[in-house]
Amino acid sequence: MLNSEITAKLRAIVGGTRFRDDKEALVAHSYDGTPMLQSLPDGVIYPASTEEVSAIMKVLHEYKIPLVSRGSGSNLCGGTVPAHGGVVMVMHRMNRILEVDLENLTATVQPGLITAELIAHIEGLGLFYPPDPSSMKISTIGGNIAECSGGLRGLKYGTTKDYVIGLEAVLANGSIIRTGGKLMKDVAGYDLTKLLVGSEGTLAIITEATLKLIPPPRAKKTMLAMYRDLYGAARTVSRIIEARIIPATLEFMDNPTIRVVDDFAKLGLPLDMEAILLIEQDGDPETVERDIELIREICAMESADRIDVAESREEAEKLLTARRSAFTALARLRPTTILEDATVPRSRIADMVLRINEIAKKYNVTIATFGHAGDGNLHPTATTDARDAEEIHRVELAFAEIFEASIELGGTITGEHGVGIVKAPYLEWKVGAPGMEVMRGIKAAFDPHNLLNPGKIFAKETKKRVVLQHG
Ligand SMILES: Cc1cc2nc3c(=O)[nH]c(=O)nc-3n(C[C@H](O)[C@H](O)[C@H](O)COP(=O)(O)OP(=O)(O)OC[C@H]3O[C@@H](n4cnc5c(N)ncnc54)[C@H](O)[C@@H]3O)c2cc1C
């Protein structure tokens, strides 16, 4: 696809060392955090400025070469696998915090900035940027925006989309657009900022983002509620919300997850519990005290076996870090770990957990479940082995049925990980044929030659829906 004329033009833009087409670079950028997906690009390029991105896009547009933008490749939907070859554009060199505006409470950053570095910097200034995906020590802000990532604080504070108020982006033909700004109100035309959030690198390349910051909460308290009855834990989630309490964090781990997390983080968790809820409330000290007390009563009413409130901030951080390590800890069990993020209205969490367990049993596969229960966002995670085709087939059937179940319960096929390649065949189940038509139209308006991350979001074929039978 790339000939010497094109590579010479690309090298002229970024210099000799920031374009690579050696085997090592191609293989290193042929896969991402998603298991069992790999496809070689034809080249890898590392721009250092918006002008370079624009110049690169002009060349690729001229020769109709596909482009895959890449942060850290930690996505779990095949989002950065170059399914159609072409050039992978790695954003890590564009990693600066350009400005923190203390009058407007905004931060303007480049897309390659690591999420945890932004959060630490902002906290150092006595401010708060809430979106905190568990991958925040490796993920980039550009990746977070393109996937509309969530995190442990999503329930009370929302997800990435709630904090992106302005963008600079480069279109497929190389022209540069600016959307939104340091504005809390802006209804000038269609909201292109929100459209680009979650667009998975298929509409434009984000080169700068203006993010909303908020004052930090004054107090925080963290507790663990442990249950022998799995569904008691799931019901607690609905009861807390019903009681009009919105905790900052409301996370769920089932028994297999508790076991691996404890083995990984050495917390001394009780291994005989069927489920644990990790709950954090923040805000004014009095509100926090009152909410934690009410939550404790609700947990007890739903027959929690043990309720522990963290004694110190260090202890609380240890618990949050342990929850963040759930995926990594599960990945130690077997060679292949497939994590999904079926999401339901939070009132249906108990039903969804029940259905996941029934489906795992039906297909005789091992599925551990943890997730952001307060958001209704569960991560059923299959521990399996890609070398066993028969088992992988059963895992695929189980996940198709899990997607179907979540839609049936009023939910969606993905709450925060994106569609990418993996969920493209299921997207029509959620948005319907007319919804797909509108999305295709939007894609064509931004990228008429299908050069930006082709093969993502739109599948060649929609999977047939399975007919669910359950008691
Ligand atoms: C251990 C682990 C835990 C995780 N926990 C969470 C979690 O709690 N919540 C959550 O939501 N996700 C989570 N994820 C998924 C993943 O980390 C997020 O999707 C993250 O936002 C991806 O960031 P990245 O920099 O790695 O992006 P990449 O994986 O490199 O890219 C993701 C997508 O963004 C596009 N993209 C990247 N940069 C740009 C840009 N500048 N302009 C346009 N498009 C761009 C890519 O083309 C791709 O489609 C987890 C993943 C792992 C491995």
Could you describe the 3D structure shown?
The protein has 471 residues and is of the alpha+beta class. The chain folds into four domains: 4-90, Uridine Diphospho-n-acetylenolpyruvylglucosamine Reductase, domain 2 (2-Layer Sandwich); 97-212, Uridine Diphospho-n-acetylenolpyruvylglucosamine Reductase, domain 3; 219-323, Alpha-Beta Plaits, CATH 3.30.70; 329-446, Alpha-Beta Plaits (2-Layer Sandwich), CATH 3.30.70.2740. Helices cover 36% and strands 19% of the residues. The strands form three sheets. It has a seven-stranded antiparallel sheet, with helices on both faces. A five-stranded antiparallel sheet has the order 5-6-9-7-8. Strands 1-2-4-3 form a four-stranded mixed sheet. Strand 15 and strand 16 (377-384) form a beta hairpin. The longest helix is centred in the last third of the chain and has 20 residues, at 389-408. It starts with a helix and ends in a 25-residue tail after the last helix. The model is unreliable at 467-471 (pLDDT under 50). The chain binds flavin-adenine dinucleotide (FAD). Flavin-adenine dinucleotide (FAD) is lined by residues 32-33, 68-76, 79-80, 91, 111, 133-135, 139-140, 142-144, 146-147, 149-151, 200-201, 205-206, 327-328, 416-417, 453.
